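Researcher: Can you fold this with glycinamide ribonucleotide in place?
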Amino acid sequence: MPAFSDPSDDGACVQWPLPQEWPLLSRKPRLGVMASGAGSNFQALVESCAGGWASIDLLVVNNGGCGAQQRALELGMANQVVDHRLHSNRESVDRALIDAFKAAAVDLVVMAGWMRIVTPVLIGAFPERIINIHPSLLPSFRGVDAVGQALAAGVTLSGCTAHLVSEEVDAGKILVQAAVPVDTGDDRASLTARIQSQEHRILPLAVALAAQRLGY
Ligand code: GAR
């Protein structure tokens, strides 16, 4: 089963909820994943799901050939491109996402580095069932370049948040957070790397907690 963080390990990260039993699910949720880039969070989900608590039934990317899609192809996992550039508005993109996820019969949708705003069209199709990972301690530093925003603000503590997606961007119910100290001399790359290593721990847990809330 996936590990929980311990305040004594991995750069003195502190995770909320604190170490506890992995949520015991009575049914195995089917996951759809959305990604735009390198896919390290997708990879973390794949590794966690190898434990058997959930299945990943479809990866959708908006950037064909991105790292996440390459990983799915290597693993022989179902994947699809929904290219936002071929749609005239966000709602149309979301309708394509809904079609893909409904066809794959997914129960929950995970935005694992999806760098686009979603609309009430998608949120309404999967109420309380969409989880996002964001590289800040929300409600601080919503929106784009959260790590750059945190560095510019001079905070000494940053981190990541896995939350349910609501109509207001980066504002839905918080499921799991991990705090990551900012080191003197950190730049975007170094802080992003340490935050992402915590994202990989909290995102699977948040998905399991979201499933548990829904009675899985
Ligand atoms: C992650 O750090 C995630 O928090 C961020 O994109 C990165 C994707 O990395 N998401 C956002 O900023 C969403 N607002 P990955 O492709 O390696 O998982």
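Model: Folded with glycinamide ribonucleotide in place. The pocket of glycinamide ribonucleotide is lined by residues 35, 37-41, 68, 112-113, 115, 133-135, 146, 196, 199 (CB under 6 Å).
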